[in-house]
Amino acid sequence: MKRKLANILRIVISLSLLTFLVYRNRGNFANIVEASKDLNIYYLIIAFIFYFIAISFIVFRWGTLLKAHDFFISNRFLWQSALIGFFYNNLLPSSAGGDFYRVYDIKQNKGIPVNEGIASVVMERVIGTLSSIVLLIIAYFIGLFDYLTRNAALGLIVSGLVIILFFIALFFPRLFKLNLLLNKFRIFSKIRPRLKEFHVILSGYRYKVKYLIMSFLFTMLIQVFFFISYNSISLALGLELRFYVFIFIIPFISLVSSVPVTIGGIGIRENALVFAVTSFGIVQSQATLFSFILLAIILIMGMIGGIIYLFKNIFYKSKSFI
What we know:
By secondary structure, this protein is mostly helical. It has helices at 2-24, 29-37, 41-56, 58-67, 75-91, 97-110, 114-141, 150-171, 178-184, 192-203, 209-237, 246-257, 268-279, 284-315.
């Protein structure tokens, strides 16, 4: 019952944020329609292709992290699993999400223990978030934070520090005495052994430096593909946005949309994108159209994952079909 209520709440928040965005542009509908008529379809195709490539390259990062614990799975299988996970994340109001599907998939079909599967996915998230923070630091030093209000810049810096502290606590819980905190509550007594086992596996990545570096490099390559995709949308709209501003825009949107209060970041991502793009001098109507084009690309990607899900889990009984 609680899970259903949580899912309903996430749907309501997503729809409310999208409604808010539309309402804010109630006076700009004519401009949005006019701008949509002048879209360059070739740049939109390029934007979709590179977004697809970026999502597909997740398999190399994920596969590298699995190899760190001597699990070797074909990239074709991981690709299917990753796209189905993308479908779960963006088109289904499930609290489980695509990450849990991926863990389930490699457990059921490849025999990867649950803790190892979860650790690989969590480590993916950690590396992805750290890459976003690195890009935001670069954005700060090249002056992109100067386009923000003082409160927005300060809030972003504080949020980044909180995330870094969270990761430190995740890998070094004894520094914050979290182990003692868990021991005080009986509610954790049953799951404490599993938590300890999971933490041992996760912290074991500290000794897999080669694999971590490779995963980080794959992540930065994925970011480059996202840059090209976003920049192509900008070119399709005829916006005067320089390529380097996406060093701020993309990681900012990534961090904001990762807050688990909506369905796959829908609603919060679009509002964050409008805020970021307008900060660089783009008018509200064009920024809003930018956000809805990106949403359309994401939903199409999700539908592709859904089609793969139908083939894999219905026609092929959860086996790899490529």
